[in-house]
Amino acid sequence: MYWTFDRVQKLTFRTSIKQPFDIHSVYLPNIHDIKTNLPLPDKLWSVIPTFNHLTSLSVSLSVGDTSFNLQTLLDQAPHLYTLMIEDENLSALRVVSRLTSVSIRQLVFIPCLLPDTHFFDDADCAVFARSSLARQCEVLEIHIRSRASVMNLIHTMTNLRAMTIYVRDDDDMELSPIKHLRRNFLTRKTNSMRDGLNSLWRKLSIQKRKLDTMKNTTENDARSSYNTEPELIEWLQNNAQRRCWISCSSGWTGDFYVKCWID
To answer: Which terminus of the chain is less hemmed in, N or C, by CB atoms within 10 Å?
Structure first.
């Protein structure tokens, strides 16, 4: 005997060897949104008899994961519009570059918390930009290391209409002291989270005192850091071969948050 839940539209679950997908005697025929991790459990197909209503899929990758049966699901989801991938080991672009779909138009790459591992390099971006999903993508959110990759994505992804980019901008090698301070602080903050909240707050307190001490002596450097925003916008506009509307802001760690609307 099976119970059918027609009104359930969103399904969120995570599986592992210790916690397998354990849903029995249930049909979910109207699922629009799935959030899970790879590999997808085989029992998923018995719980969801059809993926015709699926419009959004979010999957999490971890060390050692590949696309597994993700392509099988994509082949059965003719109305899937958004694919979101959370990555822990920089394999997301390589996974997506191997996938195909008739309907996906929005790709979102969700970073892990580690500040030095979730920015994709120029080589990864170049391979991704030539992939099937990238060529048909219209809306993109991605984290990249270099502003040069922004130009490559805009020029290669001909159907792109809007793009949100977090840029590490390794092209700017002469970082101001305030940028070094911010990046080093975020790295220490992330590492301290693993050791417990007590250690974290001790480090935050120490860092706050350092910031207060340096406030008067680093105002000019901080101002210079923020003044790179219009410089980056001008560089992007001058190098883009397509007409773009661009906004840019600085992140707390000295990185850049860029939004592009492309004609």
So the answer is: N
